[in-house]
Design brief:
The chain is an alpha/beta fold and about 525 residues long. Helix content is about 30%, strand content about 25%. The strands form six sheets. A nine-stranded mixed β-sheet has the order 2-1-10-9-11-12-13-14-15, sandwiched between helices. A four-stranded parallel β-sheet has the order 4-3-5-6, with helices on one face.
């Protein structure tokens, strides 16, 4: 199935249904389909088709969504570029993807000038903004083209999106996700639109991220109005939920904390929210506990854990697993499970294996392995590193964790982050959970730093709560009384904030560099 069908099928059935809101602009299915068909024809006239690619360097907008669907309509591969990437990373991504056309927001024009000047073969540039100078603009292309035509025939194995990973420890890897991968995910997750309103989804994560890409497919396919924010802003998020009566939203942990901390949070009407999903990075327990106490009871929380390599979500911790009832025994179980990532979706198998590849019993820590029909086609260029696929179809996630007796999956850290002190394995998550239980601690990151004597020792970067007070010596003593001696952090520093990538993942490499002995 061509993912362009996610738009064209419901649009032909319900052309007058409102499906997209961006700023002051509102679009029906019919509006978007006409613009997408015109843009697809303009791209075809510029040599775009199967075997070619189209890239975008911009923040979220209706133009961005139109570019994806127009690219799919033409049967080509879409390449969403991280606008926060460093210059050398952008040069690498564009050079490897070799897009025939590159759409961009004018604010990134100077950056593109610098990057493209270094490439032997530069793509054709088309601006999103009217301020694009003498060059072509997307609206001009749409205005001049015909809206005739149909969605291109594609193979399930054809690459729909070439999505680059964040590249926090190395150059970004291009994950090849196929039309079949997205079809399996979307059709298996939501029902097709039937003309009846299915609420409104607020999208604030960037569209170069897998959660953004799948959201523009699931919402459009199921008939849920998509409210698109250019970038995340806590005040605009709150205002949009209230104004558009948003029912569904996805946030990363840092976003949720900023929403809770916003001065207008308590005064905002959030009663329309029925599903607030979170993911992209581990959720600090104090943040989700506070959210459960602060959002309306009608708001169901969902922890959605997944990877780019698996076309988004693998496991889900649903609303019932978040609900506190006042029953002490049941709530104790709920609070324990809040530290998990839930249970696998129906189309996902999860196993925990040791280093020899043997499956481990419940509650034993090993590498999380997953098998699903929507595992990536591979990495572009067959680059080394990254997730590895075994002959039996199971993918190495590089996450360490365990599965309890009831099938809930718990993470204890990345395989690369495991600390080995004097031959003893130490999972950062265990030490982090201990420090987070201190009443003065807001956030914490635990990692290993080199040691001549022990190989590695445990280090912890701590952020205190507003108004919280604790010395590094007090935090060390707090850990000493609660952890085995070899697990106690030997280095603790209180920092104003933890370094993170744009989606909230802690940059442990930066912390290791800060803590490394001179």
């Amino acid at each position: 199935m061509n993912t362009a069908n996610f738009l064209s099928i419901p649009a032909m059935m319900f052309p007058d249904q409102e499906i997209l809101v961006f700023g002051e602009r509102r679009f029906t299915y019919g509006d978007i389909l006409a613009r997408v068909r015109r843009l697809a024809n303009a791209l075809r006239a510029r040599g775009v088709g199967p075997g070619t690619s189209v890239a975008v360097l911009a923040t979220n907008s209706h133009h961005y969504l139109e570019c994806y669907y127009a690219t799919a309509t033409a049967g080509a591969t879409f390449v969403p570029l991280n606008y926060r990437a460093k210059t050398h990373e952008l040069e690498y991504m564009i050079d490897r993807a070799r897009p025939r056309v590159l759409f961009y927001a004018e604010r990134y024009a100077p950056l593109l000038d610098e990057v493209l000047a270094k490439l032997a073969e530069a793509p054709r540039r088309i601006a999103f903004d009217a301020a694009g100078g003498a060059g072509e603009t997307i609206d001009a292309l749409i205005a001049d083209a015909s809206d005739d035509g149909e969605d291109a025939e594609v193979e399930e194995s054809d690459t729909s999106i070439l999505m680059y990973t964040s590249g926090t420890t190395s150059l970004p890897k291009g994950v090849m996700l196929t039309f079949g991968d997205f079809t399996n995910y979307v059709v298996g997750t939501v029902e097709m639109a039937d003309g009846e309103p299915r609420g409104a989804a607020l999208l604030c994560v960037p569209l170069y991220h897998i959660a953004g890409a799948t959201n523009i497919m699931t919402s459009v396919w199921t008939g849920r109005k998509l409210v698109l924010l250019r970038q995340f802003d806590a005040g605009e998020w709150l205002e949009s939920v209230e104004r558009e009566r948003v029912t569904h939203a996805f946030v990363v942990p840092t976003m949720l904390k900023q929403i809770l901390d916003h001065p207008r949070f308590a005064a905002t009407d959030l009663s329309s929210l029925t599903n607030l999903s979170y993911g992209g990075a581990p959720m600090p327990f104090p943040v989700i506990r506070r959210a459960l106490e602060s959002f309306p009871p009608s708001c169901g929380f969902v922890n959605a854990f997944g990877q780019t390599e698996t076309t988004s979500t693998l496991t889900v911790l649903g609303p019932d697993d978040h609900r506190l009832t006042g029953d002490a025994q049941r709530d104790e179980v709920v609070l324990r499970r809040l530290r998990s990532i839930g249970r696998p979706l129906p189309d996902v198998e999860v196993e925990v294996r040791d280093d020899s590849g043997a499956a481990l019993p419940p509650n034993e820590v090993g590498e999380i392995m997953v098998r699903t029909a929507r595992v990536m086609k591979g990495y572009a260029g067959n680059v080394e590193g990254g997730a590895k696929l075994e002959d039996d179809g199971f993918l190495h996630t590089r996450d360490l964790g365990y599965i309890d007796e009831e099938g809930y999956v718990f993470l204890v850290g990345r395989k690369d982050d495991m600390i080995i002190r004097g031959g003893e394995n130490i999972a950062p998550a265990e030490v982090e959970a201990t420090l987070q239980s201190h009443p003065a601690v807001e956030e914490v990151a635990v990692f290993g730093v080199p040691s001549v004597e022990w190989g590695q020792v445990v280090a912890a970067a701590v952020v205190l709560r507003p108004g919280g007070a604790a010395t590094e010596e007090e935090l060390s003593e707090f850990c000493r009384s609660r952890l085995a001696s070899f697990k106690k952090p030997e280095l603790i520093r209180v920092l104003p904030e933890l370094p993170r990538n744009p989606l909230g993942k802690i940059l442990r490499k930066e912390l290791r560099d800060q803590f490394a002995p001179a």
